[in-house]
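Worked example (supplementary).
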Amino acid sequence: MIEFQLDSTSGVATYLQLVQQVHQALQLGLLEPGDQLPTAQQVVGKLAINPNTVLKAYRDLEREGLARARPGQGTFIVGTLPRTNPVAQARFLASMAKWLGSARSAGLGPDDIEAIYRTAFRNCFAEGVA
Amino acid sequence: MTAVLEASSLGKRYGRRWALSDCTLSIPEGKVVGLVGPNGAGKTTLLHLGVGLLAPTSGSIEVLGGRPADGPAQLGRVGFVAQDAPTYAGLTVDKHLRLGAYLNPSWDDQVAHHRIEELGLDPSQRAGSLSGGQRAQLALTLAIAKRPELLLLDEPVASLDPLARREFLQTLMEVVAEQGVSVVLSSHLVADLERTCDYLIVLVASRVQLSGEIGGLLASHHRLSGPRRDPGSLPATQEVIEESHTERQTTLLVRTDDAILDPTWTVKPVTLEDLVLAYMGRARDTQPPRRSGLKVLR
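After joint prediction of all chains, the assembly is encoded as:
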């Protein structure tokens, strides 16, 4: 069974953090179909969050076809996500390192670089968000 | 949706001083409600009126469809933990439970003992020698073992250390998950409210400034920043809650259900703390201080 963690400084809504952690666990192979997710009681007993937040996260996972609630038993993983491709990961890490090196030699500091990254990241994923 | 607590023009006067006046609000069922506001806003008075420790001077209040403290049945439906979680210093933990069982017709002894065991409290220890966190947990245990439909908690974690606070809220959230009880919780600690509450009420000088599902409130408020401009030129659907200007820049917190299309704005989401501060600040700036003793700091 996986254990949820919360990052209260991330600015990401709590239920979304739970959803993302299940996604990550699926991508890393830590969760597989048939595995049970912790009950709302178990999660709130540990994280001291509102039970509705957990239920909302689980509903999202159900909508995505990744989890299913079995009445009286709990919520179980039923779907899979493609595993993160380690080769692709290494390739993009290398090209990112190269890009960072050239930004640095162009005289950009850490703050400049982070601002560029954030803007590019936002632009890339902002479609459909006001 | 039915209301667990409904107040209409509710007021409470002590001598010449109104602790709460003309308060109208409705709290829906099945929520964990965070009640925030400055000291003196009337939060404690409101909770005391809700549990029936006080009678209204004016207006009316209904709790779970009945009059507060109107007979044993009504008393049994509402659990209350007062500020600083009072317990009887000279009584042991076990005697508190026996007292609770004796006084409450709906008492669930199994829940009570299970909780005490889980908390690791020694039943033979006197409440006076418990730590602040343990005392708060004991008071909460008494309130939940009577199996209420509504729990009213007046700043339950204000005096606790961070670990005791977390443990208290863990217990509270477990109870919400297990029993489906509605909760109204007053607190200044917005970070705690952010984790535990799904409904927010901002109360300033007896008035509800803001009330609603936290998710919806966060989605309908935005922080806009851009070149300096007159907030009067904004579309009518955007209500300005907070504004600040420098010579060149304008920063606004607006409420709107529509998308913000103006490309000159940089739009950022707001946090619960932003919302609480903005509405408390706006209420302070638009209302004259009600009491001469209340200083307005700018």
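Two points are worth noting when inspecting this output. The radius of gyration of chain B is 21 Å. Chain B has two domains: 3-214, 220-286.
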